[in-house]
Amino acid sequence: MSEQTFTKAQLAEYDGIQKPEKYVAIDGVVYDVSAAGAWSGPNYHGNVAGQDLTEAIQKSPHKLVVLTRLPVIGKYIG
């Protein structure tokens, strides 16, 4: 199976509204945050699914540690 790629417009569809899944991009990798309890609401600390959150994760106290628990969906090509 080939790895799925996402443009900015394609990723934006996975905001939990347009499509039920919630995906975010970080450092060029797309992660599924749909099942993450912290993402059960419309946003997480003001961050919205369907976006590139690389800058936000770098400023967060947990940094990239939380990503190890999330399923990888594909690559973000912007």
Automatic annotation (TrEMBL):
Looking up InterPro entries in the UniProt record yields:
Cyt_B5-like_heme/steroid-bd (IPR001199), Cyt_B5-like_heme/steroid_sf (IPR036400)
Domain Cytochrome b5 heme-binding: residue ranges:
6-77
Q: Domain of life here? A: Bacteria
Q: What is this protein called?
A: Cytochrome b5 heme-binding domain-containing protein
Q: What is the organism of origin for this protein?
A: Lacticaseibacillus brantae DSM 23927
